[in-house]
Specification:
The chain has nine helices and 19 strands. Helix 2 packs across helix 3 and helix 7 runs antiparallel to helix 9. The chain has a six-stranded antiparallel sheet with strand order 8-7-17-16-13-14.
């Protein structure tokens, strides 16, 4: 496999040894720890100099040409971070990126002698051989570089498209000497970004319960949001895809309960609207029926505390934030926090079922963003700490991408650093 792209570690070590960039330096006599300036781009004192190390790697790796490309410091920084995060021989020893005077990170080589790389070599690698770690990195980088967010023919959802009609499964193995054939497409550096960022790719699984009995379930992609209504006479001119809750007469035998549920549904009016904007999910009620919500477990709502809030009438209110979810997911992987909650429960027409069974409530609706369920399921996989054990990440409707738990955590951290919590 011929390539002119240098490997980041020998390039970086050479840069550190020469001391050419201010703030990029070894911090110990054994040269096993080094510092990288790490100022957030939203700080008011940010200057172009703060991104010199990231720009330098973008230039030597061929991702940026100063003569024809527009400067893109956020992308430079993200690609540099991703390249280091994928190195198993490195770890972040200290994260001082929030230091008000000298924001930086200190990286450390965790394997003795690993910094003794050969000189930087950008000549073609014609025999397709190298160290095990280099081969694994090249495989991963090429596989990830062969995915792109693209549109599909009219009438189908957009997602990660592939050029070939029958793409190979993206599965990594430490024993692979020759890369499998890959689609020739543009680069997309973080596959999780393709799962979480496009609003049109968010699928919502909606389940309704009358007096604790499941009466409705449907999964839909709705870029403009959805509206839960209780009658076909609901206003079709309002935004959001209509989802009509069923008549209780087909599921309930208690005539009194059936009558009360019908009253609740009739008071929904324009409906309960739910939609995504940026990193947040918003809700709004368009009828007279008061609705309370809470983020809870997927199997059942937590009735030990009150609701997280009441859905406001005729104005929007935030019911979920993606940023804290990603941060909590990383903490969960590290073992310092319980699994993050992503399931939204709505109690319609009555007070939240605090200190009483939720199954006694007339109408309860559960909404699950399925992509968040996928992320948590992957985090619960144990023992996947090497390339011999992989997890399948289904990105939208595309082919699954297999990642180790370490790679998965690195991509989550990459994503979290670009979010404004």
């Amino acid at each position: 496999m011929a390539t002119q792209k240098p490997r980041i570690l020998p390039w970086l070590i050479s840069l550190l040894d020469r001391g050419q960039l201010e703030g990029v330096a070894w911090v110990d006599a054994n040269r096993t720890r080094f510092r990288i300036p790490w100022k957030h781009r939203l700080r008011q004192d940010t200057q172009q100099e703060d991104f010199r190390i990231f720009q330098a790697w973008a230039e030597v790796s061929g991702a940026y040409n100063p003569e024809k490309d527009k400067p893109d410091p956020p992308t430079w920084k993200r690609n540099f971070r991703s390249a280091l995060n994928r190195k198993e021989v490195l770890r972040v020893a200290e994260d001082r990126s929030k230091d008000p005077l000298d924001p930086h990170k200190i990286y450390e080589f965790v394997t003795p002698g690993v910094r003794d790389f050969p000189e930087l070599d950008t000549s073609p690698d014609t025999n397709n051989r190298g160290s095990t770690s280099d081969t694994q990195e090249d495989i991963l980088e090429e596989l990830l570089g062969d995915m792109v967010l693209a549109s599909v023919p009219d009438g189908g959802p957009s997602g990660l498209a592939v050029a070939s009609e029958q793409p190979p499964q993206l599965l990594l193995s430490p024993n692979i000497d020759v890369l499998p054939p890959c689609p020739n497409l543009a680069s997309s550096e973080n596959p999780l970004r393709q799962l979480l960022v496009p609003e049109e790719e968010w699928e919502f699984e909606v389940t309704a319960f009358y007096r604790g009995r499941q009466v409705f379930q449907q999964a839909v992609f709705c870029p403009g949001g959805l509206r839960l209504v209780g009658s076909e006479a609901a206003d079709n001119t309002l935004p959001g895809q209509l989802m009509m809750l069923p008549d209780p007469g087909v599921a309930l035998t208690d005539k009194g309960a059936t009558s009360f549920v019908r009253r609740v549904l009739s008071s929904l009016g324009g409906g309960l609207a739910l939609w995504r904007a940026g990193q947040q999910l918003w809700a709004r009620r368009l009828g007279h029926c008061r609705t309370y919500w809470a983020a809870g477990e997927e199997l059942l709502p937590d009735g030990t505390h009150g609701p997280d809030g009441e859905v406001p009438k005729d104005r929007e209110g935030v019911v979920f934030n993606l940023g804290p979810f990603v941060a909590d997911l990383i903490a969960f992987i590290e073992g310092s926090k319980r699994s993050p909650r992503y399931t939204l429960w709505f109690c319609i027409g009555e007070l939240w079922p605090q200190d009483q069974p939720w199954t006694k409530k007339l109408v309860m609706v559960k909404v699950v963003p399925t992509c968040l369920r996928v992320l948590l399921d992957m985090a619960r996989v144990e023992g996947a700490s090497s390339l011999e054990t992989t997890m399948d990440l289904h990105i939208s409707n595309s082919h699954p991408l297999s990642l180790t738990s370490d790679q998965y955590k690195a991509y989550l951290q990459d994503l979290a650093e670009d979010m404004d919590f």
